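dumping the sequnces here before i forget
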Amino acid sequence: EVQLLESGGGLVQPGGSLRLSCAASGFTFSSYAMSWVRQAPGKGLEWVSAISGSGASTYYADSVKGRFTISRDNSKNTLYLQMNSLRAEDTAIYYCAKDVYSGAAAVFDYWGQGTLVTVSS
Amino acid sequence: QSALTQPRSVSGSPGQSVTISCTGTSSDVGGYNYVSWYQQHPGKAPKLMIYDVSKRPSGVPDRFSGSKSGNTASLTISGLQAEDEADYYCCSYAGSYVVFGGGTKLTVL
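..and the predicted 3d for all of it:
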């Protein structure tokens, strides 16, 4: 059974940093691209970042480019999102999502339960 | 990286059919066949309903179907059931990024 378990969310002040993790199990982690998708309270889904199965290719939404870094450790079956220079508008539930393909094709067949990030003073 | 355009809400009675549109550009919806649709119930994670424009994952009822014409993709739900009431999001690959639609709230009357 595929499982994705996010952790690392919490309350952080504007300008601060946070690192999210997503522990994956039930599939060959290195064979699939992974993404982070967020959802602000009461709002729609927003794609944040993606990484290929090998980790060689990364992609970012303009809203987070230069502030967030996606990475993965295939030996630990874990996906990460390093978030720096956080802003109030980054407040959201952050989901990790597994792609159907090894390259990032934006087809997410499994999602975690999400972790809440709140940016506030 | 502009969001895809979806109607804010649609509604239908049990047994009827509804169609949700998703309009993008030639850089996203019109340029690739990686259009997917997600269903989200309140407080839950999204669920993949349609991928690659018209393919259904295992376990998704065949009442759900997808199509695309030019820069507009569509999700059709036939034989509406009460449990179909949810938010629906379209999503498209766009080369170096991914874009979602703003979401459509489906109400089953």
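The radius of gyration of chain A is 13 Å.
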